[in-house]
Amino acid sequence: MTVIDDDLTLVFTALADPTRRALLERLAEQGEAPVHQLAKPFAISQQAISKHLKVLENARLITRRQAAQTRLCAFDGDRLDHAADWIARHLAIWADRHDQLAAHLAALRATTDDADNRTDSDEGNNAR
């Protein structure tokens, strides 16, 4: 199995977990916070929270620093902006393709409707 660890993969992998997303939301809302405070609302061990924070740190979605005896975490949105830009680019590509498909289907429907109308008209002429 090939492990891809480019920045975008690390970000999407980090965002794939609901606990990590909740941790990011808490940090984005309240700013810098110590690990023990971030862990409070979750019914998981401190060790599990630390593992989630490590994944977020590896994806560079958070930064951690030591202040006396406390490790403080802070949200870093730069990598999230990079992921959002990637999504926006691909949304634009797919929106264009959907528009082209819709135009093609409309043209097919118009052609089919014209053929049906001609067939109905021909049947009417033959009946006379």
UniProtKB/TrEMBL annotation:
The residues covered by the HTH arsR-type domain are: 1-95
Q: What is this protein called?
A: DNA-binding transcriptional ArsR family regulator
Alphabetized, the UniProt keywords read: DNA-binding
Please name the SUPFAM superfamilies in this protein's record. Winged helix' DNA-binding domain
Asked whether the UniProt record includes NAD among its keywords, one would answer no
Which parts form a coiled-coil structure per UniProt?
none
Please name the InterPro entries in this protein's record. ArsR-like_HTH, HTH_ArsR_DNA-bd_dom, WH-like_DNA-bd_sf, WH_DNA-bd_sf
GO molecular function, a single term: DNA-binding transcription factor activity
